[in-house]
Amino acid sequence: MTALNATHDPKLRSWVASANAAGTDFPIQNLPFGRFRAAGSSNSDEGFRIGVAIGDQVLDLKAVGLVDTDDMNVLMNASVKDRQALRAAISAGLAEGSDKQAAWSKALLAQAQAEMTVPCRIGDYTDFYTGIHHATTIGKLFRPDQPLMPNYKWVPIGYHGRASSIGVSGQVFKRPQGQTKAPDAVTPSFGPSKRLDYELELGFLVGQGNALGQPIAIGEAEDHLFGVTLLNDWSARDLQAWEYQPLGPFLAKNFASTLSPWIVTMEALAPFRAKFERPAEDPQPLPYLDSASNREGGALDITLEVLLQTAKMRAEGVAPVRLTRGNTTEAAYWTAAQLVAHHTVNGCNLQPGDLLGSGTLSGPKPDEAGSLMELTLGGKQPITLPNGEKRTFLEDGDTLIMRGYCERAGAVRIGLGEVAGTVSA
Ligand code: MN
User: Fold this and answer.
1) Which of 170, 237, 363, 367 is the most exposed place for a label (fewest CB within 10 A)?
2) Dihedral sign, CA of 247, 169, 179, 147?
3) How far is the CA of 126 from the centre of ligand 1 (A)?
4) CA of 238 to the centre of ligand 1 (A)
5) How many angstroms separate the alpha carbon of residue 226 from the centre of ligand 1?
6) pLDDT in tens, 184-197
7) In angstroms, what is the span from residue 357 Cα to ligand 1's centroid?
8) pTM of the model
């Protein structure tokens, strides 16, 4: 786990004025990585380059000579030492009083004028299920007699997702079609999903991988993580209910998943770690999922919010309305290090850019739910929006927005930015 260093100093300020504004997601203590190009260049041959968010600007890392590649996966494959050195150099160059200011200010582009893309090449995507409150509530709806399966408190449950349909914030996707079967129907029917939902998740992106056959020990697990994004794992609940047994979700999940454009590094998150604790009555993790440092600070303290803007709200210029807000420390039953250790314990090889979804991070309270399935009790209790519109599940034209940020006394607030996505007919 990364120790605090000069890049986390709360007194540090940047010569980029917007980075010093209260409430910015991207102060100099954050420095997340993304891939960008000038907006409107999709018809030209301008490729995406690696940038770092600073205030409301993007710093072009190649233009300032800090990287010699446009390939984020190459950067992700660097050693922890090299990644730390790069962060230290970016921090020093952007700091108030730096002699780089004149040269580097020419390598800035306003984020409002940048087009972002999926922040790296994602070879494989695994979605876990670490949200125990989510698992319990959803389990009750699917299996009232046995909400939490007996393996849940022993195994970090996951399934292999689909990488090809992952998009970046702003993604617009078509409502999926498929088979559904009402409980009282004799045969399934085919058509558009009527129970389209979102899932509020963190996406952990793998840095250096491991060789096939060589597990990553939990003590080294975080060295293999490059950073964190927000992830919306869109889910068609009616397709899911009919198809999920016995091999898990398939078409209910693989039509779209949306990521935020900025990867907040594990190093940037160092001031926002939390103890990993299990209730005394719960089983303690098996030795390969346990370590002193994981117990001491394996968890992340991130506040997550979900907002909705319907087509009607958008047409009338009404801002998105917040549906829920919660915190990851209360939601996740397993830590990121445990996911990496578990994923590789059988010898499975992770590669730079692989995405590990946390699973839906719902808190213990109803207004901390990370999906509509929970918020509306399986569609039985619609929510009413301030303008009078009602929702059980998502309707065509709905834009769903997730935001994340870390706040703690003695540290500068950092944010994960946001991930937005829109359902179309
Ligand atoms: Mn999920």
Assistant:
1) 367
2) positive
3) 9
4) 15
5) 20
6) 999 999 999 999 99
7) 7
8) 0.97
Based on the residue annotation, tell me whether 134 is a catalytic residue of this protein: yes
Residue 43 pLDDT grade (very low, low, confident, very high; cuts 50, 70, 90): low
Average pLDDT value for residue range 341-351: 98
For the stretch 94-150, pLDDT in tens is: 999 999 999 999 999 999 999 999 999 999 999 999 999 999 998 888 788 889 999
CA distance 14 to 8: 13
CB atoms within 10 A of CB 140: 16
198 CA distance to ligand 1 centroid (A)? 9
pLDDT of residue 27: 98
Q: Per-residue DSSP letters for 31-100?
A: --EEEEEETT-TTS-PPPEEEEEETTEEEETTTTTS-S-S-HHHHHTS-HHHHHHHHHHHHHHHBTT-TT
Partners of residue 49 on adjacent β-strands: 36
Mean pLDDT of 55-82: 98
Distance of CA 376 to the CA centre of its chain: 23
Q: Is the pLDDT confidence value at 42 over 80? A: no
If you measure from the C-alpha of residue 7 to the centroid of ligand 1, how many angstroms do you get, rounded to a whole number? 33
Helix or strand or coil: residue 105?
A: helix
Residue type, 83: R
Task: Give yes or no for residue 82 having a pLDDT over 90.
Answer: yes
Specify the length of the chain in residues.
Answer: 425
Dihedral sign from CA coordinates of 407, 413, 414, 416: positive
Q: Could you tell me the distance, in angstroms and rounded to a whole number, from the CA of residue 186 to the centre of ligand 1? A: 29
Q: Residue 304: beta bridge partners?
A: 326, 404
pLDDT score for 41: 72
CA dihedral sign, ordered 198, 201, 206, 211: negative
Q: Which of 8, 133, 134, 343 is catalytic?
A: 134
